Structures are given as structure tokens and as C-alpha cells.
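Workshop exercise sheet. Pairs work together: one partner reads the sequence aloud, the other fills in the structure field after running the prediction. Swap roles for the next sheet.
Pair: D.N. / O.F.
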Amino acid sequence: LCSNAATLAQRLEAHPMIERVNHISLKSHEDYEVAKRVMPKGTGMIGFVVKGGDEAALKFMRGLTMIFEATSLGGVESLVECPFNSSHMMIPEDVRHAAGLVPGFVRMSIGIEAVEDLWASLQLAFANVRDCCAPVWKPQPSLRSLCSSVQCAFLRRLHTSFAAHPLPSMT
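Structure field:
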């Protein structure tokens, strides 16, 4: 798991559509030396910023064929999320940015799949971004409405789920 994550982090760091990669196996990571001592085998978590902001990150994430979108990361399968529309969607934008969750930020948890299969999925996702957002990969002015529609869709699904499967009474 961790060696796959390290390999993918190195490849992502060299990719022209990636602005920055956050993984402790990379010498560019601010805690690289400490991590070598404390976590010598590394971690399966990777954070990175897709050029073009949140819209490009969403297109990237939704173009993945083998890595699945989830709000809870960590398992045997590779999972991905864009915090702006999932785990951190209710946190004000300025607070997210101050914490390093800048536009285009993606979090990925690497599972047990073969590293070349994962990389092939990432390559397809990059093609999805290039096809939709080329040549400059900048977010469209409608990003706020996109967030709102994603939040509304999530809340509708949540409401429908609870209506169909109510929680048992605690009395």
C-alpha cells in the first residue's frame, strides 16, 4: 500500500496538471526527514492540488475508473474525495484555504490494487480534465452554483435515505 502511494506521489509530483503533492515519501514534503524516522514505511494517504481549481478536481475525480469517490477514506480499495464538496463542505471557504485545502485539493487513500492499474486510472482522469477544461484548466464562474447543486443533491439523497429507512426510536 505505502510503496504504491509513494510511487503514485512521485508520478503525480512530475505531472504537468498537478500544482503540488503532499506525501511524506517526497523530499519536497516539509516533514520528510522526520517521517523517514517515524513512519519508515510511509502512508497510503496522498493529498494533491489539480491545476484549475475545484471544477478541475471534480472532473479529475469523476473521471477515475478504478478509484472510487467516498467521504470516508481508508480501506482495501483506493478511495478519493474533494474536501470542498464532502468532508469539509460546511466549513467556510476562507477557513478551508487557511488550513491548506485550497481550490483543486484532492485527497486519495491508496488500496491494494496494482500500482500500474491505479496509474492508468489516474491518466484517464487527467484526460477527462484536459478534454473539459483545456487549455487553461481554470474554474468556471459557476463554481459556487456547482457547490450548491452538489450540496442540494447530497441533502436530497440523505433525506430520501432517511425517509426510506428511518432510525429506530430510542424510547
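Discussion prompt: Strands lie at 18-22, 45-50, 68-69, 79-81, 105-109. What would you look at next?
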